[in-house]
Amino acid sequence: MSAAPPVIEFNNIIKRFGAGRPGESGVLALDRISLSVPVGEFLVVVGPSGSGKTTLLRLINRLSEPSEGHVLFEGEDVRALDPILLRRRIGYVFQGVGLFPHMTVAENVAITPRLLGWPKDKRETRVDTLLELVRLSPADYRNRLPRELSGGERQRVGVARAIAAEPHVVLMDEPFGALDPLTRDAVGQDYRRLHDKLGLTTVMITHDMLEAVLLADRIAVMHQGLIIEEGTPHELMSAARTDYVRDLMQMPRTQAARLKGLMEGGAP
Amino acid sequence: MSEFGERFSEALARLPDYLGQHVIVSVTALALGLAISLPLAVVATRHARLRWPLLAFASIIQTIPGLALLALFYPLLLGISALTEAAFGTGFSALGFLPSVLALTLYSMLPVLRNTITGIEGIDPAVKAASLGVGMTPRQSLFIVELPLALPVIMAGIRTAAVWVIGTATLSTPVGQTSLGNYIFAGLQTQNWVSVLFGCVAAALLAIVVDQLLALMESGIALRRRVRTAVGALGILLVLAAALVPGWSRPTAAYVVGAKTFTEQYILASLMQQRLQANGLSAARRDGLGSTVIFNALASGDIDVYVDYSGTIWANHMRRTDAQPREVVLEEMGAWLKKERGIALLGPLGFENAYALAMRRDRAEQLGIRTIADLVRHAPQLAIGGDYEFFDRPEWAALRDAYGLNFRRQRQMDSTFMYSAVANGEVDVISAFSSDGRIARFDLVTLTDPKQALPPYDAVLLLAPRRADDKALRDALMPLVGKIDVELMRETNLRADRDEDKETPAQAARWLWKQIGAQ
Ligand SMILES: Nc1ncnc2c1ncn2[C@@H]1O[C@H](COP(=O)(O)OP(=O)(O)OP(=O)(O)O)[C@@H](O)[C@H]1O
Ligand SMILES: [Mg+2]
Known about the structure:
The complex is a heterodimer of chains A (268) and B (519). With 268 residues, chain A is of the alpha/beta class. Helices cover 40% and strands 22% of the residues of chain A. Chain A has helices at 53-60, 83-89, 105-109, 111-115, 120-133, 138-141, 151-162, 181-198, 209-215, 233-238, 243-263, and strands at 8-17, 27-37, 42-46, 68-73, 76-77, 90-93, 169-173, 201-205, 218-223, 226-231. Chain A is globular and about 55 Å long. The termini of chain A are far apart. Chain B has helices at 3-46, 48-63, 66-88, 97-121, 125-133, 138-168, 181-189, 193-222, 226-249, 263-278, 291-299, 310-317, 326-341, 361-367, 372-378, 394-403, 415-423, 438-441, 471-477, 486-497, 505-518; strands spanning 255-258, 283-286, 305-309, 344-352, 355-360, 383-386, 409-412, 429-433, 444-446, 458-463. In chain B, the strands form three sheets. Chain B has a five-stranded mixed β-sheet. In chain B, strands 3-10-4 form a three-stranded antiparallel β-sheet, sandwiched between helices. In chain B, helix 10 links the parallel strand 1 (255-258) and strand 2 (283-286). The radius of gyration of chain B is 27 Å and the shape is elongated. The site of magnesium ion has 4 residues of chain A, from helix 1.
């Protein structure tokens, strides 16, 4: 273990929605979460819909605040940090992509560098590099508007935008959901290489277990606002403590087995 | 030239002035409205609690008829002006430009407020979240993301506001602001339909052109076509420039002659203007002013001279309800005007334009009615028509109480249509004006007033306080004093009111001057 503090640390986080309204106890979206992400780690968060994954991610760059508990970023309580500057230091890929519809692909990608006051020529070369990284030809795509892109192309632009300002920490909420399997695999691998090369710290949410297992250093499984298990893909696949996680981690294998059966002409 | 052609070219000659003023008022109001509504709307999207009261306020304003809203601002500003006068020694003109701009500004607010709020709130929440997520400050989010995205909706609101303001600006004429409404108000009074139509069409064309240019900008913005946006903006600037240039070159007149909203007033104002010009004095006109507005405008020096009627001042301003003989009224009025308002009474013109009850001659003879006293017995079977003011005026109360009049029905109507209404039997009695040319044309009789319940209404020339001792002005207008008797005024009015060979007020005024000179 290195001496550096974890990049992200959740301390006993509780998050309630809609409490305070008379006669309502509200939704308990996060129920005493503690978790830390060390420098350089690629953490993948999985879990059923509504289990609190997005809620957890949004606490890191202060898009929302915890009801109780503390979030630390590089050892400092985020509440002591300026949210604007914090967000410019953290790349964020939104679940719904959230590209600015009135800006071209290039303008979208270059937005955080622009807010940080990068010179124009530096922004432009950066845009080209990033578009190539997410496998979109700059010449074809730079000047398109989001509505002129397919869903998968939009997601890739979203990823490019998140890492444009060279953040050390990247948060990704289902970044590749709309990509075809081949591009998805390729872009995922490309991103993982970038993560290693630049020494990034990444937290990624996904519903694709194969993707999780192939990309993650560590996987956290959420269920009803709790982190029910966490560990390396290998640990979770070999020694899950709960049925849910066991079934979940078995998914890639069961699918592979079914596929094999299908190819050999047997019943699945 | 045909009559139509003559009227048309006369209207066309006034276009640079009227259109220019119309554009200036509209654009100022619109710019002010935007400067207020846009920030307010943005604040309302940030503080949901403000939204409802703001929109409710703007909606209520919208339900006030344009004319009433404009009229409300005049006394309000007059009061404020008096306050600043007292506090700082300088007042400002409460007439014309200011009340019009303020009322129109309020009018422009609702569509801009509503569309800006809707536009900003309609933005995809994911996009708003993303603007924060990439590290924008709320202000950056507003200017880089929210406003540009809402712009098409906001522009649509601006277009609506522009069309409303340009249309409603025609109503600023009665508070003393020259506009395309001058064609309409003057035309309605003198039954010059070419003028009315000209005003309506000009206002409509202006609204359409501005709307289309804004639409061009809107689509240019939406489609990110810079050229299109620029062409639209350039067009707007051209309209502005075209409207403003004649305004700059217009010389400012030394004297301003005021006129109320009926034919006799237009003729007399024309006559005064012609007399001033014949004496080498430059004179401008403020036409179509409301009765209270024009008096206050004279008192505050916004206009220099106009013709009012002794009974109006007696009842409305002096608040007198007692009946006095003609000479006593003139004398007491002159003293009161001087003392209370500093206004100078140059003198009576010679005729009265009094309220008089009038009936068709045959009907009056058939019922045996010659005086108002004779009318009392028949009144419960008869309908009376009056102009919009009449039934609210103290004269009507005095008349009713003095004789115990009680009609079957009271109808308010435009004074233009009152005479034909009694002529074709829609009503039996009207509150006519004694100098109106249509009394002769429709063969009406005016009923005598044995109890002298109706105050006298001598036409009098009034001068603004600062013109009280202006010798040039007095010399130019003095030849009119005492020279116009009621028959002469009726005939002059008829020339401008009749359907055939109708003359313009200026032509009728020239004819009148010839008759005065021949005496
Ligand atoms: N702004 C909010 N107001 C009220 N409830 C909310 C809000 N945001 C999230 N929730 C609730 O909190 C819970 C967790 O939501 P969250 O978005 O974190 O789920 P998730 O794990 O990301 O699900 P998915 O995989 O479908 O994206 C859900 O029950 C959701 O309805
Ligand atoms: Mg989610």
